[in-house]
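Private note to self, pasted from the team thread so I don't lose it. Backbone tokens:
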């Protein structure tokens, strides 16, 4: 795996693991996994399409706070269980995509 994408693969793995092992309700698991493991990922860490997919997850998780300040925050309370499930599936799909790309790269380099 290219080094810059290896960081993203590790962060996606940790996010999937966090969502799978937490006992919190799904919206909180998704928001916490994103906050702890995925919020630091940028364009330099992911292939372009994967970055766009992660950016779409970010947009769905961000909400304007009720206290009127200008900071965007992650708001798991704004997610329904169905929306949280869709975001969890997207995060798992991104992890799968990165793992498959790594396997394909490794096979090609050994051929």
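Design output:
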């Amino acid at each position: 795996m290219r080094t810059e994408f290896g960081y993203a693969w590790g962060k996606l793995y940790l996010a999937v693991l966090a969502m799978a092992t937490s006992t919190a309700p799904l919206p909180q698991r998704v928001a916490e996994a994103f906050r702890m493991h995925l919020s630091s990922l940028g364009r330099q860490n992911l292939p372009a399409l994967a970055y766009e997919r992660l950016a779409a997850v970010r947009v769905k998780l961000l909400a304007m706070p009720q206290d009127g300040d200008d900071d965007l925050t992650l708001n798991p309370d704004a997610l329904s269980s169905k929306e949280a499930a869709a975001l969890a599936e997207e995060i798992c799909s991104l992890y799968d995509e990165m793992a498959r790309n790594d396997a394909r790269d490794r096979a090609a380099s050994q051929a």
